[in-house]
Amino acid sequence: MSSSPLLVKNWLDPEAKPFIEFRDVTKLFDGIPAVRDVNLSIYQNELFCLLGGSGSGKTTLLRMLAGFDSPTEGSVWIDGVDITQVPAYERPVNMMFQSYALFPHMTVFDNVAYGLKRDGLPKAQIAERVAELLELVRLSAYAKRKPDQLSGGQRQRVALARALAKRPKVLLLDEPLGALDKNLREDTQLELIKIQESLGMTFIVVTHDQEEAMTLATRIGVMDEGYLVQTDEPHTIYEYPNSTYVADFIGDINLFECVVTENDAGNLVLSAPQLETTIELDDPVVGAVNQTLWYAIRPEKMRLTRDPSTAVNALKGVVHEIAYLGDFSVYWIDLANGFRVRISRPNISRMDDFAEAWGEEVWITWDGSAGVVLSQ
Amino acid sequence: MRLSRYVFPVMASLGFGFLYAPILILVIYSFNESKLVTVWGGFSTRWYVELFQDPQILDAAKLSLQIAASSATIALVLGVAAAMTLVRFRWFRGRTWLAGMVAAPLVMPEVITGLSLLLLFVALDNWIGWPSGRGVTTIVLAHATFGMAFVAVIVQARLRDMDRTLEEAAMDLGARPTTVFLTVTLPTIAPALVASWLLAFTLSLDDLVIASFVSGPGSSTLPMVVFSKVRLGISPDINALATLMILIVGLGGVFGFWQMRRSTHRRSA
To answer: What is the mean pLDDT of residues A209-219?
Structure first.
């Protein structure tokens, strides 16, 4: 998605006008903060993912945009209009609910037509639009069914059609694929992207599934305990996390606590007590001597070798455990002091050199640009 | 334990026998040829024929059905309003008290309910001249009062179970609160509405105590007529009448139960 040639990265343009804005939004439930001081701009045609664990405030943020909850402080804007006080039924947004919330007493047709009927459209026009939507989600044959006669995937598509019916400026999706099994999920993800691109709508997706967020999103907003901790493109979130929380939450990572021992015009030398070594970095980083920092490195950016002679960074260890996952294998390497490092290797050949290296003494090596230095 | 194989069926039969034997005997004797209630004189439907030729009973039955239907309808409207208030508006003070008070008529002795309603109606008649005297109106109001408590309890339970996101989805699609209530909330709780209306209807139909307190001349309900007849001596046509009432109440009960079950099935689907 992020590599789509059609995509205009509005968020990189300081002149671009945000389409949706949260300004200093805080939400308290009985005095307990669910969302804290969130500032967020989302641009037209984005497929924005709010990612976080349960209780991180992502759903509350979405509900404030839909109008089901109102912010305790701050304001919400759509297309330059402050909608903080606008009731849910007058907002130009529609939502696809996690539970789908299909009306059980109505047929598929009536479910999809519900919003159009509220607008008082003529019957013929409603029928035409509903047919068009059911075509889009490939459910034309099911128009007369009731929701309880549909499978989970079909219900999900009815919910999507219903939410799209009124051509909202923004479509909100709360864990849209949560209830689907894995295969159906991947298909549906691609389908969602296709629909979003063809309709040119702004989508905001709430999910706890980082893989889903990475697949779908133009940008991801990571939430933790009500704070929006990082908002960036998927690639940036993964490769340049801004905190140990984000680094740890997205994907797997090795985190080493380090102390700055030298600062030669920004070129730091880090000493990592857990590794009993120093770490060489290619690029300058901000940090003062004796400051404690974290060095974060992804398992796939480290290599296993038996000959460390050419490496910038190298550590000696013993293979503790190997998990063969088919497409790649995960190795847990114990260092001499007992500290455990996680490394993943793609299984490029059918019989990997290290496939049966249990208990063997090996070297871990990595480049100076492989990891990131984090201050919090 | 081999014993348990016999103990439980026997206990169950005893329990059900205790509950249903009197009713069964009543039903059987309603087809009795003999005029003596306790002596079997062969099968006959003559008491049913006689029953339908007794104008007093027919009028009372008609009146009772009218009262039951109108009081159940009033109870339904008020009960739903009370339930909506109690379940949906969580913030107001004294909510817990109100919730308890709505349910109070369920446990209040009927004699007390009847007496207090009578006092209220007399006082109202003196102050504002309405309802003037006792009669059908006062019975309907009295029955609506306790029927409402049953409706409120049943509908409250259903509203609590209801998926609130359904209402949010409707609102999200542009429905104003009234439209949400009419197009989504009401249809979703419809089985509970049917069941509670039927319950209020049957409760009104077989109420004797409260009706006796608040009725006036010319407004004798069926149970009142039956009771006064029985006091003059049991006649077999009362058995026939009772059998018919059991049939009506039984059918109502079965239908109500079926509605409730259907709604739970749909929810779990």
So the answer is: 90
pLDDT of res. A83: 95
Residues on chain A touching B163 (C-beta within 8 angstroms): 99, 101
**Closest Cα in chain A, distance from residue B89 (Å):** 15
d(CA A370, CA A302): 8
**Which residue would you say has higher pLDDT here, B255 or A334?**
A334
The span from the CA of B15 to the CA of B17, in Å, is 5
d(CA B27, CA A238): 79
Q: How many Cβ atoms are within 10 Å of B122's Cβ, its own excluded?
A: 14
Q: Strand A372-374 vs strand A292-297: parallel, antiparallel, or unpaired? A: antiparallel
B266 → chain A, closest CA residue:
A148
Residue with tokens 């009062």: B145
**What DSSP string describes B155-185?**
HHHHHHHS-HHHHHHHHHTT--HHHHIIIII
10 Å CB burial of residue A196 (0-12, 13-18, 19+) is: buried
Domain spanning B54-233: CATH 2.60.120.1440: no
Residue of A66, A89, A115 lying closest to B176 (CB–CB): A89
* Residues 194-223 in B contacting A (C-alpha not used; CB under 8 Å): none
What CATH code would you report for A252-374?
Answer: 2.40.50.140
Q: Characterize the bridge pairing of strands A328-335 and A219-224.
A: unpaired
Check whether domain A10-248 has CATH 3.40.50.300, yes or no: yes
**Per-residue pLDDT for B269 more than 50?**
no
Cross-chain CB nearest to A115 (options B174, B184, B267): B174
Residue with tokens 């789908």: A100
Considering chain A, tell me which residue range(s) the CATH 3.40.50.300 domain(s) occupy: 10-248
Over residues A277-318, the pLDDT tens digits come to 788 787 777 777 888 888 899 999 998 888 877 788 888 899
Report the predicted TM-score, pTM, of the whole model to 2 decimal places.
0.81
Q: Report pLDDT digits (tens) over A153-192.
A: 899 999 999 999 999 989 999 998 877 778 888 888 888 8
Where do the CATH 2.40.50.140 domains begin and end in chain A? 252-374
Residue A3: its pLDDT value, please?
46
- Asked if A65 and A204 count as a contact pair (C-beta separation under 8 A), the reply is yes
* Inter-residue contact A194 to A210 (CB < 8 Å): no
ipTM for the whole predicted complex goes beyond 0.85: no
